[in-house]
């Protein structure tokens, strides 16, 4: 669908994780022309790295089980979940699992249907999974489905990076949006027109020194939407995963399902003593002091407890102990983790696993309604949608329950595609569309200052805006980020865009949003913890 004025599709989707690909498939099935742009390879996504699984009650008539999933989600969200959203998402889970299966996703089977695992914060076993590589199974199946017959209206462009959303009237969000500008691998910027723009860009873990996220996680969707005037909410709630493998440049995640399987957290010192003195393994866990669920407490509790223990001991890691468990069952359930440990000379089962917390999940994001439509002061921005991790739907409240994010992504992807198919092309007849402002810009010669600024930003976020915040650290972070913003703006105004430049610009915006939300939140709740509010 090329034209002299850029290219045009009914729907432009930014991102090729579960949210982007599922929406793309469903919109195409509904007869729309769809372009997916993705800034790296298709499978470069958090989705592809998800291990544990997807939470779902499969029997739609089992009210007790549905209620239990609702209550676990609300309890994890510490009173800040939108209960209507929670109930609707949990109730739609079974249908979306059927959709995933129909696209070729293979979940592990058990005695009566699918095998269900249990993870931290869940009162029942309800996590569907494919061994410990559920995300790769989902990503692979959805990617394969995009090249099936019947998907002729779907185009996917790798190495195309969305830079900004095009508004119908610049500076007037409620006039709606009509496309995006996209940086291609040849360095040129393409103008893409679309009746609907769907942001499915994932999280922003790259803001922190230690993260479980892939490098694509630079908060691009949140930053683009924010520049476009959209409401961004709950950014203070960054989830740190308590058990990322220590000693790796990019921390590898040890799934919560491992603790569901019986693994127990211990300090290095207590592990030595347990080996000497013996006794119940759970009794030696520091988690006994912090949660009645012990090592299976919710992530916020476990991550902060671990952070506190590390600060006390001065160690760089705690240990996830599995030597009391059946080795064969462990290796059968967690083959990928087993392989990764072996690469580090560790044997799953006999060897304790050194772990520490790492930035993992963005609970907040672009504020959306029940169809994934983005909002400005509570009113819909016509044509702009956000789904998956970049969106904030109200499901998670102050803390995400494990394995609820893939579920949220797929539920909202379905609702969004349904809404777009019904309404977007009518709402959004496109007239004039401006080209990217390239005149007068020169190539960025020196990338070194960007690297230095990125390092400074990540150090600051890790130290001052991480698991434990304080008023004075937040104020210092606010001043620093404002300085970085000025520096970056100077470069941005005079340079042709590069991926590094665009990402740093977006990360700085996300940092600012996290800091401001953290300053505003005057109570310690869920993932937000400020020592001055104790
Ligand atoms: C290690 C790990 C394990 C996890 N395990 C689980 C689990 O077991 N269960 C669970 O429910 N959740 C889990 N999560 C969280 C879950 O995987 C993510 O929340 C979810 O996959 C997000 O899906 P998404 O489609 O929103 O984003 P992603 O899957 O991250 O996809 C984002 C896409 O957007 C693209 N993109 C970003 N910016 C741009 C741009 N400017 N232009 C073009 N493309 C862009 C990226 O390249 C990518 O294709 C895990 C996360 C990690 C990192």
Bound molecules: flavin-adenine dinucleotide
- Helical content band: 25-40%
What gross morphology would you assign?
A: globular
At CATH level 3, the topology of the largest domain is FAD/NAD(P)-binding domain
CATH superfamily of the largest domain: FAD/NAD(P)-binding domain
Describe the model.
- 39% of the residues lie in helices and 19% in strands.
- With 534 residues, the protein is an alpha+beta fold.
- It folds into 3 domains: 2-50 and 134-237 and 363-427, 3-Layer(bba) Sandwich (FAD/NAD(P)-binding domain); 245-356, Alpha-Beta Complex (Flavocytochrome C3, Chain A, domain 1), CATH 3.90.700; 438-533, Fumarate reductase/succinate dehydrogenase flavoprotein-like, C-terminal domain (Methane Monooxygenase Hydroxylase, Chain G, domain 1).
- It is globular and about 75 Å long.
- It starts with a strand and ends in a 14-residue tail after the last helix.
- The mean pLDDT is 93.
- The protein binds flavin-adenine dinucleotide (FAD).
- The site of flavin-adenine dinucleotide has 41 residues, from α1, β3, α2, α5 and β10.
